[in-house]
Design brief:
single chain; four-stranded antiparallel beta sheet; alpha/beta
Length: 362
């Protein structure tokens, strides 16, 4: 069963949330999510706006509710049904917050007085950052309250007072989400399902662990924890295979965390590598840099993250063939995270970066 924002909306899930292949029932989407980016934010002028910062009085918004509240209610209803059926189940619940826009019940804003909000520790553009790597946050710039600031493109800084307001609303959105998760876990307890249910809490980015893990490992790990057969690794290419995995089964990571021989302990570099990639339409920031359409992708950034460093190379990419050209290097980044934990100093040009990347990614 699928509830809420489990997949990113749109072509990433073939506009179907991968249904019916991944789900026994049609995926549920809250009816109020269509208002997320509309003019529902009451501004100082008393008018409604499509803002980045959007604390609301829930009774005043369309339908008198918010998407994540609806998703929690639907998820609890499904848990109640599964309790009576006594059948094994998999329930995915996807929440919108704390993604932008920061549209949340206004009472959560009171938890974070503006005078107590600090600024981000490193708001400056990192030294030696190649232009292709910079995200000009065009999605944020489209919001009415941000447009009113008239910030220069692409590197213009956000005014300090507005930075504090952004962080205040982000923290408030997190607390709102925390409340929704709490309601869901309380229902699991009330229905006496908690002791027989595996709960995985994750996100599409961010850190809740100092260990290096990848989202592709979530599927084989849950399969292993549930006592199911873990599918084989995917061959290359894998289009002809109905079911396979790309990530690792991290079962050993859970069961033997305190044993000295555990290969997943932090500080033991074996297998602690995470890969990621991100597309760009051009070498310099432009209007669609953060969300290019497939046909517009000209460059792809590939990253390796270990306990010691993050290494990225930006290379030419053919969107028709889905092929990267690693001999066509546009730019690179190398950060040594022990001495530079915030990754502010790019050492790529001092390290013969291209040769290092070929060594690490044969």
């Amino acid at each position: 069963m699928s509830v809420g924002k489990v997949f990113h909306p749109g072509i990433t899930s073939n506009h179907t949330d991968d249904s019916p292949y991944s789900w026994s029932f049609p995926p549920y989407h809250p009816s109020s999510e269509k208002y997320e980016n509309t003019k529902t934010c009451r501004g100082p002028d008393g008018e409604l706006h499509a803002n980045l910062l959007c604390p609301v009085d829930v009774v005043d918004v369309p339908e008198g509710t918010l998407p994540d509240k609806q998703s929690t209610e639907q998820a609890i209803q499904l848990l109640e049904k599964m309790k009576t059926s006594a059948s094994p189940f998999f329930l995915a619940v996807g929440y919108h917050k704390p993604h932008i826009p920061f549209r949340y019940p206004k009472e959560f804003q009171k938890l974070y007085p503006l005078e107590n909000i600090t600024l981000a520790p490193d708001s400056e553009v990192p030294d030696g950052l190649p232009p292709v790597a910079y995200n000009p946050w065009m999605d944020i710039r489209q919001r009415e309250d941000v447009q009113a600031l008239n910030i220069s493109v692409p590197y213009g800084p956000i005014p300090v007072d507005f930075q504090r307001k952004i962080r205040q609303s982000y923290f408030a959105s997190v607390s709102y989400l925390d409340t929704q998760v709490g309601h869901l876990l309380s229902a699991l307890d009330d229905l006496q399902l908690a002791n027989s249910t595996i709960v995985a809490f994750t996100s599409d980015h961010g850190r809740q662990s100092m260990d290096l893990v990848e989202l592709v490992s979530l599927f084989p790990t849950l399969a292993g924890l549930a006592g199911l057969q873990v599918p084989p690794r995917c061959p290359v290419p894998s289009f002809h295979v109905e079911l396979c995995r790309e990530g690792k089964n991290l079962l050993k990571h859970f069961r033997f965390r305190d044993l000295e021989e555990d290969p997943y302990l932090p500080g033991n570099p074996r297998e602690l590598i995470a890969y990621s990639q991100y597309p760009r339409p051009a070498d310099f920031p432009q209007w669609n840099s953060d969300k290019p359409s497939l046909k517009d992708i000209k460059i792809m950034g590939y990253s390796i993250r270990t306990i010691d460093y993050r290494y990225t190379v930006w290379v030419g990419f053919n969107p028709d063939e889905f092929l990267a050209n690693f001999s066509d290097i546009h730019a690179g980044e190398l950060y040594f995270v022990d001495s530079d934990p915030l990754q502010d100093h790019n050492m790529y040009n001092d390290s013969q970066g291209g040769d290092l990347f070929q060594l690490l990614m044969p």
